[in-house]
Specification:
This protein has helices spanning 3-15, 48-56, 64-68, 80-83, 103-115, 137-140, 160-164, 169-175, 184-200, 241-252, 264-274, 346-354, 356-363, and strands at 40-41, 75-76, 90-94, 121-125, 153-157, 202-205, 209-211, 220-225, 228-236, 286-288, 291-294, 325-327. It is α/β, with parallel strands linked by helices.
Length: 377
C-alpha cells in the first residue's frame, strides 16, 4: 500500500461518523476509542511517519495516543451499522449527561450481556463526547471493570438529531424546546428508542430491567396489564410498520405535559389500531398480527404499586419461571433504595444470580469507576 493511500484510509477512518466506543474515558478524562471498521487493521499498514503526517493535519488530540507510543498495536474498527446490522442487538439509552451509571444500570447491562452472549449489547449515552483519539481496547476496558470481560458490550454516543434523521421525529425534534418540557429526559428517550429500533431492529430495554432468560419472540410488546402496553421493553425487526406508525402518532398526538403520552399510552393507542386486544386470563400471550403481546408475567410479575417488594426479604425467594426479565420500577424509587449485599432481600438475590460482577464489586466495597473522573451531574 502506498504512503498516500495509507494516509487517505487513515483519514477516512477518523472522519467517518457513526462509531462505537468500547469502555471509554482515560484516567485523565481524555476520551479514546478503538478505531472502527469491519476488520482488524494491522500495525504494518501504517508506519510512524504516516501517523505523524496525519496528526499534523488534525487537531492535537486526534491521534494523541498513537503518537505517544513508539509501537502502535493492532486496533479494531467497529461501525454501529455493522454491530446492529443483523437486527438482533440489545439497546439501552441514557438521555442525560450522566457518565457514572448506577449499580442497577450496570446490572441491567451485565445481565443482558450474559443472557444474550451471542448478541451485541449497546448502551447509548448522551454524555459520551465525540472522538478525540485512539486507544487500545485493553486500556479502555479499565473504565467499567464490571463489564470489561464482555466482548459483546459496546458504548455509543447518543446524538439525537442523527438518530431522528430519516424519521417522522426529526421535524418535531428541531421544533421542540427541551427547557419547556417537564419530562424531557423521558420524552426524548421515548423518541430515541423508537427511531433506533426502526433503523436497526432488535430489542430495547429500560436500564432498570434485569434479564434472566432469552426472549424467544422477535416482534413483541410487553403488556404491563391487560390491554395496556409498556414501552420499557419491546422488540421489532428493522423498519417494522409498528415503529413507523408509533413515530407518526408521537408527532401527531404530542403532549409532553402528560406523563406517558409518548410512551406506554402511545404504544397502547397504536396497538389498539391494529387489533382488538382481549384480557389476559392466565399466563398466555396474545397475537396481534405479526406482533406478540406478551403477558404481564413476562416482565412485570411484580406490578408497580408493589415495587418495594424487590427491596424486601421474602420467606421464599420466587423463581419467576414465567418471566424473561424483571422491571424494577426505578422511576417509583424516589427513596433511592439500592441493593445491599448480604441483606437477603429479593434484589440481593437477583444481583447475585444475574449480575455477579457488579454484585461482587459492591460486596467488596470496590470503586466501580476507578478511572472515571467526569462529573455525573
Amino acid at each position: 500500500m502506498s504512503k498516500g493511500l495509507k494516509l487517505f484510509v487513515l483519514l477516512l477512518l477518523i472522519a467517518t461518523g457513526g462509531f462505537l466506543y468500547r469502555y471509554p474515558w482515560s484516567q485523565h478524562s481524555t476520551f479514546y476509542m478503538t478505531v472502527l471498521f469491519s476488520q482488524k487493521i494491522k500495525n504494518s499498514d501504517f508506519d510512524q511517519d504516516t501517523i505523524i503526517n496525519v496528526q499534523n493535519k488534525q487537531p492535537t488530540e486526534t491521534l494523541k495516543n498513537l503518537t505517544e507510543r513508539a509501537e502502535v498495536k493492532n486496533y479494531t474498527a467497529v461501525r454501529l451499522s455493522d454491530i446492529l446490522s443483523q437486527g438482533n442487538g440489545i439497546m439501552f439509552i441514557e438521555t442525560t449527561d450522566r457518565m457514572k451509571p448506577s449499580p442497577l444500570v450496570l446490572c441491567a447491562v451485565e445481565s443482558a450481556a450474559r443472557v444474550y452472549s451471542n448478541r451485541s449489547v449497546v448502551y447509548f449515552m448522551k454524555g459520551l463526547p465525540d472522538m478525540h483519539g485512539v486507544n487500545e481496547e485493553s486500556e479502555a476496558k479499565k473504565i467499567f471493570p464490571t463489564l470489561s470481560s464482555f466482548d459483546n458490550v459496546y458504548f455509543s454516543p447518543l446524538r439525537m438529531e442523527d438518530i431522528f434523521t430519516g424519521t417522522p421525529l426529526l421535524p418535531w425534534y428541531k421544533k421542540v424546546d427541551p427547557k419547556r418540557e417537564p419530562y424531557w429526559t423521558h420524552v426524548s428517550a421515548d423518541g430515541c428508542r423508537l427511531a433506533l429500533i426502526w433503523k436497526y431492529g432488535g430489542i430495547y430495554m429500560d436500564t432498570d430491567i434485569i434479564s434472566m432468560r432469552p426472549i424467544p419472540d422477535v416482534n413483541f410488546l410487553a403488556a404491563q396489564s391487560s390491554k395496556f402496553s409498556s414501552n420499557g421493553v419491546f422488540g421489532l425487526s428493522t423498519h417494522h410498520s409498528f415503529s413507523w406508525r408509533c413515530m407518526e402518532d408521537f408527532v401527531q398526538n404530542y403532549n409532553g405535559a402528560v406523563w406517558g403520552n409518548q410512551g406506554p399510552q402511545l404504544f397502547t393507542r397504536v396497538l389498539e389500531q391494529r387489533c382488538e386486544i382481549p384480557n389476559f386470563v392466565s399466563t398466555e400471550d396474545i397475537k396481534c398480527g405479526n406482533i406478540s403481546f406478551l403477558n404481564p408475567q413476562r416482565f412485570y410479575p411484580i406490578p408497580y404499586p408493589a415495587w418495594k417488594r424487590y427491596y424486601e426479604v421474602w420467606d421464599k425467594v420466587p423463581t419467576f419461571d414465567n418471566s424473561h426479565a424483571l422491571h424494577l420500577w426505578n422511576f417509583m424509587n424516589k427513596e433511592q433504595k439500592m441493593v445491599v449485599p448480604g441483606s437477603n432481600t429479593l434484589v440481593d438475590h437477583l444481583y447475585k444470580q444475574y449480575c455477579p460482577n457488579i454484585y461482587n464489586a459492591l460486596k467488596n466495597n470496590e470503586n466501580i469507576y476507578p478511572n472515571l473522573t467526569k462529573d455525573t451531574t
